[in-house]
Structures are given as C-alpha cells and as structure tokens.
Amino acid sequence: GLEAVRSIVSTEVLFGLYRGYLSTLASFGPFSALYFFFYEGFRKRAVSFYNEQPIPAHTFWMGGGLCGAGAAFLTTPLDLVKLRKQLDPKSAFFVSEGMLNSLNRMFWSDGLRGLFRGATARVLFFSPATAFSMALFEVLKSAL
Q: How far apart are CA 142 and CA 144, in angstroms?
C-alpha cells in the first residue's frame, strides 16, 4: 500500500498516481450510462407488470444484476484499454494514444474476441454488486 505509493511518487512523481485516470472516466462513464438506461427500462416494465402494486425486492435484485451484467459486458473493451494503460503505460501499444486509437489497435491485433477478453470476470464482478445496490436502493426508497 504505502510503500507502493512512495515508489510511484519517487519514480513517476505525482502524475504516476493518476495514470489511467482519464481512461477510467472513459470506461466507467459509459458503464454507468448504459446501466441506468437498461435499469430504467427494466424498472418501468416492472412497475407496469405489477400494476402499481408493491414490487418484490427479488425483482429489483434480478433486474439490477441483469442490467449490470449487460453494461459490464458492453463496456469490457473500454475497461481493457484502461487496465492496459494503467499496468503498462510505456508499452508501444498505448504511448500517447487515445481510447479510440487504442481500441482500434487492439481490434486489429487481437480481433473482436480480444476486445472482450476478461468479459466473464467483469460480468461476474458487476452483476452481484449492481443487483445488491439497486435492490437495497429500491427497498429503502419504498420504505421512506
């Protein structure tokens, strides 16, 4: 922890602590936008299905998980670029390249399959997290 921070600051100055920050924003922004877009559509269908009756928490759990899984899968290429920039910033693969150029280079190097490398792990990480957070949010919102 602290030793890693000291090492980064001593070799890369303060800039090293923020390596990949813009790529992180470019990854999580679209994830959040897609997630809430999917979830709002799901929520509207759930309200219609239950005809204004109380919606069971497990419905929000399932919807939150599915919407999070979809958003996580679709934004995997952006997350992969972010991770590569953070882990290997001096790689010729990413030197002074923007997100789109990096995606293009990855596509021509590794193909479509390469752009979605790690998608399963990403979906398995985000799906339970979004399921829990939206179910809790909806239950607390209705309780208040």
A: 5
Pick from 17-26, 40-49, 85-94, 100-109: least confident = 85-94
Q: Pseudo-torsion of CA 11, 13, 17, 20, nearest 10°? A: -90
CB atoms within 10 A of CB 30: 15
Cβ atoms 72, 33 nearer than 8 A = no
Task: Give tens-digit pLDDT for 98-110.
Answer: 778 888 888 999 9
Q: Give the count of beta carbons closer than 10 Å to the beta carbon of residue 88.
A: 11
Decide: 5 and 17 in contact? Cβ < 8 Å: yes
How far is Cα 32 from Cα 141, in angstroms, rounded to an integer? 20
Q: Assign residue 13 a region (left: φ > 0; alpha: ψ between -120 and 50; beta: otherwise).
A: left
Take residue 93 and report the two structure tokens written for it.
């693969």
Q: Rounded to the nearest 10 degrees, how much is the dihedral formed by the CA atoms of 11, 14, 16, 20?
A: 180
Return the beta strands (E) in 40-82 as ranges: none
Which residues are CB-neighbours of 115 under 8 A, at least 6 positions away?
76, 77, 80, 103, 106, 107
